[in-house]
Amino acid sequence: MSNGVFLLSLTGQIESAVFPDFDDIYCKYCFTYGSDWAITSGLEEGISQIGKCSRDDRQSFVWNFPLDVTFKSTNPFGWPQIVISVYGLDAFGNDVVRGYGLCHIPIAAGQYKKTLPMFVPESTTLLQKLTCWLTGRRPEYVEPRILGQGEGREVTRVRSQGWVKVCFNTITRDIQQLGYSTRSSSNSHSCLSL
Amino acid sequence: MGDTELVNLHSSSKKEMNYAWGISEADDETSIIKPKPRKRLETVVETPFNLPVSETSSTVDALPPLRKPMPRRRKQKEIVLSPRDLDSPASKPSASDSGFVLSPGRSSAASSHRLEDKGISEADDDDSVEVRTIAFRPQEAIAETSFDNPVQLATFSPVHSFKKPVPSRRKQKLFSPPQELASPVSKTSTSEHVLVHSPGRSSVSSRGRGEEKDSGPSSLPARADTPASISSQHPSVGETSLDGSRSLTSQSDTRSYRERIRDRVRSERDKAASGIVQAHQRSRLKQRLLAKPATSRFDLILQKEERQVEEALQKHETTRSKWKSAAENLRKLPSEQECYDFFTQVWDSETEETEPHTPASVQETEEIEHEGGDQTKLITSEYLGLQDEWDIVEDTIPTCLNMEEVHEREKNLYFYPDSKLVPVEAKLPPDQEPRYPEAEGLYIGTQLPLSGRNRCRVEQRILVSGELKWFGDDGEIISIPDPRSTIYYKPLLFDDVSPLLETQYKDAVPLDLDKHSVMQPIDLNTMYLLGIEIQSIVFTHHPLFSREHVLAKLLNDLYEKHCRRVSLKNEDRLGGRLQALRRARNALRISLEKSADTSQEQKERLRKYNTEIQEVRQMHMSECRRDRQLLGSVLQAWRDLKEVRELQQYINTPYQLRIHAQQISREEADAEQEEWEKLVQAEWEDFKEEKTEEFTKQKREYKKVLAQWKKKRKHMKTRRQQQREKEESIEMDDDSTKDEDSEDEVPMGKEPKPPNPIDWSSLRNELEGQLKECFRPPGEPKLFLELTQSATITIDSENPREQQRRAAVKRCSLFIRLLYNGQEVCRTKNQPLTAQFEVILKEKVAMRIAEWPESLKVELYEEGGSFGRHVVAEVFIPIPSHTTAMEAVQSEPYEFSNTQVITFSHAGVGCGTYSSVLPSSRNIPCLYTTGVIMCCAGWATEKSSGKILSPPEKYCGSHKSDCADLMDIVNLPEGTVDMEKLRKWAESSPLDPNDPSNSSFFYCLKNASMGLTTEPTYFRLDPLQSEFDFCRMEDIINNPRLRLLYLRDRGEPEFRGLRQVPIREKEISEDVFKAYEKRLASPQIEIGTISTDPLDIHRAWGKRFLQEIRQRILKQCRQAQQYRKLEDIVTEDQVPDIGTLGLTFMQWLQPKRPLKPARKERKKVTVQGLGGQDVRLIINVVRAFDVPVRKDIDTVQQSSSSAFHQSQKFSTVPVRPFVEVTFQGVSKRTTTALGNNPTWNQDLQLPMRPPSGDFTPGNLQEMQDTLHLHLFDEIVVDLLEDDRMRDTNIHQRLERHWLGSLSIPFITLYHNARIEGTFKLYSPPVLLGYEREPPHRQFSGYVNEGHSSFSHQDSTFLTIFISVQPALNPPEPFKEQLECGEPPYLQEHLQNWEQEVLALYPHRKPKTLVVDISGKSMCVTRFIRAIAPPEVLEGETTNAHMAARFVSMIPSVAGSVLFPGLFDIWLSSDQVLRLLSGDSEDHAVLLCCYLLYMRRRAWVLLGTGIPHGPTAYVLEHRGEGEYCLWDPASGQFFDVHSSFCPLRKVFCLINDENIWANVQNVELPQHTKFDVNKRSDWWPAFGRGIGSPTTSIQPQVLEYNNTSPAAVQFLQDKIEKHLRDSLVKWRRTARTYWNRYCVAILRKLLPALERETWKLDSAGQVDHIHELQHILGSHKMCGFPINMPYTNMAALTESVRSTGVYYIESPEVEFALAVYIHPYPNNVLSVWIYVASLMRRR
């Protein structure tokens, strides 16, 4: 008998990224989740090393930055999402944001490889864009976790750039016991019939 | 020349690279290698020098260079590396052994190879450097030379020595450092050198001893002729050595290091020139000494010296003796033998001896190295070093050759490959012809591109080496073709596949939408066996049918039909029914006739019977007619068949129809006749009846019509008559004529004809004819038909066409392909077509299916017949239902057909043609190939268990329900069947429910009615919405978990911060909802029930009212708040204007101040991140000023002891204060300090717990907790009674006396992030037992003597700093504007003005439009109006102090507490009085209004104060630039210059006319100028252009009601009682005694205290001490009055409790407590509580 919580263990890596035309990039990750969720172990936030672009055609940045976190929850509402924000140095050596991306942690146990498309908020005006470029302070999200919510996103304009590849290995525990099914409906359907 | 080098490299060992370089340099063939060393040299140049200087000389200048070596050394190593690779292994140990000193030495040695060259080019700069290198040279040099090829040595050295005549001049000067070493000053250091060197050397010698020995003798001859040249130079060296160290002292420090070195060298050079001779002599001596083998350490040192001298000497010598002479000597080359010996000969005995010398000699060599290449140097040095020992001179010198000679020799040595084209013949073996594979057609790849010159050179080289094998048949060098590919391709990358190509695993998803794709792969472990048995194929038509076949088939069909009909016996059944009906009708009729009263029902029944009889009769007749017709057609067909058989004279089919005619006897015939008659009669009667009925009907109708017609006609007639009359009377009128015409136009209609009377006889005939048609007339024999297949088929017919046909039939064979899911499973054997066009297959196929069945198809193939193999038909066999077992299944016919058109020339009829096959005129329509396959399908059963091996039901063929069958029968399109109608029809129609043929229909009806739902009577906009609801609302409410989640989602405050809602209902306690339900229920509680006290009710009502307003406005704002702006989500820099840009540039230009501390913003912790942390309040209690001191007022002893006290005042510590901090029930205290100006400087940390652990701003804002700081005096009471024990025992008790307190709401702290400053403590006006220090004892810095009349005097101040750790997110200010009550232009103006002010001073936010209680924003000036204050004292006009007192007694609430996260709401004065609460602005407005009424100039001042943050004060102008401030919340009054004024910042002023924003740079009230007329100081919102709105929202007059004195008295008693009880309750451990006498006195005192606050001149000061004299005489008294506005009982209790009066533990303590309430109008109450503790004096 479980003790009324289910566990979601996530291990994985922020493997690599593709950001054409950028160099010296690092990433940060954080999780956003609902109020019924709690992290039982592992790091909620992390910051990777600075990676340089590979010299081949792939132009990829490899971080292999490990993720290892375990959540516990009583309610699938507010399923945790990983928010990855990528920063890098621009031509003047300023630390600027290169992309934001997020996705839900896979809900079913298994291995997943996800490619997160990244985007950055755009400057509102051309003049601002210029000054941003000069000062090295590009528009950034006040809080990257805001991306985990749908609310208020309509006011922003973003440009997409780059991808980040993340690999997730998720293990769940007690979800089934508590009456939730994380397998796809067709699967369960076939299970019933056969 | 590159080639040359290459050759050299290969031929010699690695280490000879050096020589190779040497060559290239010497030959001036600048090769690639040359630039490199040059570059390196520059770095090396200084390094070797640094060390020696520091070691050898103790001069001042030695220090600065010392700083450099370390970093340099690293460089050196880098440099060393490359030569080391090239160096011989022998050189390596020396490096490792020689340790730290050697490493530079080594590098120098290594680099010195290049140094020579460098020496030339940069001689001016680096002379001295080279000198130093020399000292360390030996190991290297020896090591290298030892492996040298003697030949090369011999040849190269001269070159070098020749090449460098220029440096030679300078060599003299270069000798100086070694000289220095030799000098007595530096003796010790030099000895070190020796020590260091020797291991290196020994290691060398151990490794390459043989070589060393070689070097010894071989150098001898070289030295032999140097002395002559050296001798002249010796003295100079000696001179140098003496003065070397001095020279540099004169140099200034500013000069560069290099310069100094150069100078030094120069000076030495000068000196050397003067003293050459002496030095020379000395060195000679030394040399001689050196020659002896060293015996001791001292000797070694000596030797060392000698060596140095020698070095100098040699240097001298070498430089002096011009190279011309040297060259001459050198010209005499050592013989080859010598050279050989030099390296190879083993010198065993001499090692001992030579060893000491070698360093010297080596050093010498290095000197020489500067002049020439390595090689030369080496050799010469060997010579020189051993000069004195060996006098053999002549034959050793590596003579300098002149250039021509050198070149000549070189020519012999070197091979220069020619770049001339090599003839083909030369490349091939002599007797061979060149053969070109290309010409022979062989493929030759493209050759590597190689420039012609190089190619030729290579060829030449090969040619010279004679290796012809490198040449191919065609004379070209054999080489592989160009390996480069011209095609670009991407190499495979294995680890990172393009995302497009990446294979992603996806579960196969069966879709429910389409059954065909639903298939889940069958688990191979389960067995599904489908069996199909194909029995036979029977053609009902085939192209090869002969005519006879066609007819026979027809006959067969008709016969079968006939048989079926006969078996049905429709005739008898219907006949019987008809008879029964007739009987029933007759019976009914009879009964009707009998009884006169015929009910309608019966008539109806009769009529029904009639119609039914009519129907049945007709059906009976038609059925019988059909039977007879069928019989006829069978007979016809048989006749045709016979005819055809006769015609063609052969028989193809076995069919034979036998007709049995039953002959009838006479009687039978009569009976039949009779029966017939009867039948006819019965029919006739019915018929007649029908007809008469019909006739009567017609007649009735006719009559009706006729009547109508007649009526019409009549009407028309009259009309016409009228018209005629009209015509006659009136003249012809257009209208009337028209009228007439129009009427005439109406067709009259024919007169209806009456129905023809029935001609009964003809009808009878007609009926009889019909009957005869339908029924067998009497006398006709009964026919029984029998079709047999007994006819013999004619085997060989004569007819060739028939023969052809038969042959074709015989050829024809058929087989079947079985397809499962469109894939062929199997095919049957080819079976021949029989003559009867049947194929018996009888094949059984069992298949184990691996796919869900979709289709089962049989394809019928025909072979051989008319065409080749072709498909005759495709038949889909339905998948058997999952219950169908193979055993139980019956074979069923499946019809097939084919639309092929075939015609034959033979007897076959073909198909698809309209050929008339029949002899009779009857035509049979076009025939197509048709047939029937007999087969069956079913699932196999497992034998053991009998289980049917079928897949689940849903995969099997759909089972047609009976109901669906019925639908087909009913022939209504499915889906549109109106079951209701059908049922009605079924009810009305006399369907026999027991008839088995109707059973399915009734079944269907029954089912349908079961499922029938009643139509809803309401209408829904979104009818499907409920389908998507998770569950019903009741379920959510009933389920605690769902309810919890639901309420949390709704944002109910009790559940807002709830985390981890348990997943199981049972884990949720029932109590969770209690608070919520209570809150929900609370509004229902009548206010009256809370308290009986009218005063309490008033306050409760005010609170409730504000709560409601809050709810309403929150609702209004919530919508607006939800819209997020870009700034909320994205941080973006503003476009900098010129000002900020200028600032940034200024910053760059400013001098950098790295030590200037930069302010770092504290990181705001996100809400989510705060969850786990504990948030703490950090309170730093710094110090207090003006703490009252203890003063025991003993009225009895006062006079006597006063003098004593006076004298003691300075020496004793009359107070021991400490501060206790309380927050959320947790207390911490500081240590006890001493004196009235104590300093603690102590950090206190208190935990902060928000309600329900929720750190969101919204929740934090609702925190009502207050931080209390209390200042106590700690009194140590000595309890030790026996003085004798004083030495050993301590028995004390601590008491605390409250001195003052400070309360800071958490909200204030939260909004301000931190609070710091000096705060005035609330302290009672009288503190019994304490007094303040007289002003002269206070620090002058804190007291402004001129304003001592102000309130600072009787107050204590506390300096604290409070912050929250970690910092909390301050609430987002609400930006949205609500609906504005002002005209738009005003609104716009005010907003603009506000913006402009904010642009200047972003933090000084003036208020322009504020929200009133209705949620509309109003201009602030409307709030201010002169209003009369209440009459506080009868007969006395209310003064400013009284008004302020009145205002301060209105309970205040912090604005942000009221409306968290929003702007605050301003209440008008009447509202404030009604609600009896308000925030600081409301108080200020009210006070301002009163002051204005008193004709004073007053403003509401907005600013920041301590400790409450944003606050409002009232500024009053007292004339002549005198301003004072009123704190409306406390009623206190400050001069603007008072340093302890709690107001800190002044932002804006508001009065009824205008708003002024503070645009001065200062904002401290002490410094601010308050003259609002000055535009530069105060910027008004309204000016000439636009005026302030005139009407005020304040009422003209406030109504004041007198407070009921009875209620006040009641409350007063209640409070007193309650407080007394509380005090007793707090003192749990001790009994509480009350001093009633004291209480009475205190009660008397309290009203006076209230009066004092009014500052009336008439009210005399009450002398507390005087009043209490009696008590003070007998008791030690400690107490104080507390004053506060009345809010509720709890607040009073808490404030008394916090003073800690009850804390006194003394057993004999007595207490006194008195309460007084001063009633102000409108239920404003000022509560005074006097608490005192008394101790009896002894």
TrEMBL record, chain A:
Coiled coil: none annotated. One of its GO terms (biological process) is cilium assembly. It is found in: Cytoplasm, Cytoskeleton, Cilium basal body. InterPro entries: C2_B9-type_dom (IPR010796). Keywords: Cell projection, Cilium biogenesis/degradation, Cytoplasm, Cytoskeleton. GO terms for cellular component: MKS complex. Transmembrane segments: none annotated. PROSITE patterns: C2_B9. It comes from the Eukaryota. Its main location: cytoplasm. Belongs to the B9D family. This is B9 domain-containing protein 1. It comes from Gryllus longicercus.
From TrEMBL, chain B:
The keyword Coiled coil applies. Residues 730-746 have a biased composition (Acidic residues). It comes from Gryllus longicercus. Pfam families: C2 (PF00168), CC2D2AN-C2 (PF15625), CEP76_C (PF24652), CEPT76_peptidase (PF24656), DUF5523 (PF17661). One of its GO terms (cellular component) is ciliary transition zone. The keyword Ubl conjugation does not apply. GO terms for biological process: cell adhesion; non-motile cilium assembly; protein localization to ciliary transition zone. Keywords: Coiled coil, Disulfide bond. Residues 255-272 have a biased composition (Basic and acidic residues). This is C2 domain-containing protein. Residues 228-254 have a biased composition (Polar residues). CDD domains: C2 (cd00030). Residues 890-983 form the Link domain. Residues 592-619 form a coiled coil. Residues 88-98, 198-207 have a biased composition (Low complexity). It comes from the Eukaryota. Residues 161-173 have a biased composition (Basic residues). Residues 51-129, 156-279, 349-374, 713-759 are annotated as: Disordered. InterPro entries: C2_dom, C2_domain_sf, CC2D2AN-C2, CEP76_C, CEPT76/DRC7_peptidase-like_dom, DUF5523, Link_dom, Tectonic-like_complex_comp.
